[in-house]
């Protein structure tokens, strides 16, 4: 079974990859990871994942053409997102960046899943509550 993990060098993605690799119920598991390495600290997980045999590629989910190079996969675990509650309103990232990362990236992943008839597990970190309440 070949699983693509997006956002593999982030906190959630990297811990998930390590947990999957440690699972004895998944013999023959191959993990491909993709990350844009834009988040602080993500570079620290890159070498660790590669040393565990994960093929990690530097890529951006906002670019559909960048995903075309990924071969056949059975499942995608989408752990990539701009997770900040204040993203798009704090002046550090524009609303456009938030939409492109969290929505357009997901649309591109859905197209990839359709191409390979692959399953999808979406780990959403998009806010579901009001900023005014914060």
Which H/E pattern describes the elements? EHEHEHEHE
State the helix count. 4
Q: What's the oligomerization state?
A: single chain
Number of strands: 5
Secondary-structure content class: alpha/beta
CATH superfamily: NAD(P)-binding Rossmann-like Domain
Instruction: Please summarize the sheet with the most strands.
Output: 5 strands, parallel
Strand order of the largest sheet: 3-2-1-4-5
Instruction: Catalogue the unreliable spans.
Output: none
Total separate domains? 1
What Rg do the Cα atoms give?
15 Å
Give the overall silhouette.
Answer: globular
* Name of the CATH class: Alpha Beta
Residue-averaged pLDDT: 87
Under CATH, the topology can be stated as: Rossmann fold
Describe the structure.
The chain has 134 residues and is of the alpha/beta class. It has a single domain (2-122), classed as 3-Layer(aba) Sandwich (Rossmann fold), CATH 3.40.50.720. 35% of the residues lie in helices and 17% in strands. It is globular and about 45 Å long. The mean pLDDT is 87. Helix 4 (95-116) links the parallel strand 4 (75-78) and strand 5.
Key traits:
Rossmann fold, alpha/beta, 134 residues, 17% strand
Task: Summarize this entry quickly.
This protein is of the alpha/beta class. The chain has helices spanning 11-21, 42-51, 64-67, 95-116; strands at 2-6, 30-35, 55-58, 75-78, 119-122.
List the helices and strands and how they pair.
Layout: E1 2-6, H1 11-21, E2 30-35, H2 42-51, E3 55-58, H3 64-67, E4 75-78, H4 95-116, E5 119-122
Parallel strand pairs: 1-2, 1-4, 2-3, 4-5
């Amino acid at each position: 079974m070949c699983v693509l993990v997006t956002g593999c060098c982030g906190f959630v993605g990297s811990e998930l990859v390590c947990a999957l690799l440690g699972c004895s119920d998944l013999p023959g598991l191959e993990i491909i990871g993709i990350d844009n390495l834009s988040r602080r600290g993500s570079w620290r997980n890159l070498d660790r994942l590669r040393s565990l045999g994960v093929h990690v590629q530097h890529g951006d989910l906002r670019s559909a053409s960048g995903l075309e190079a990924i071969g056949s996969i059975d499942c995608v675990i989408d752990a990539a997102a701009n997770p900040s509650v204040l993203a798009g309103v704090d002046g550090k990232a524009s609303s456009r960046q938030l939409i492109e990362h969290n929505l357009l990236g997901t649309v591109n992943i859905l197209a990839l899943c359709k191409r390979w008839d692959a399953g999808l597990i979406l780990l959403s970190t998009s806010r579901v509550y009001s900023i005014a309440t914060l």
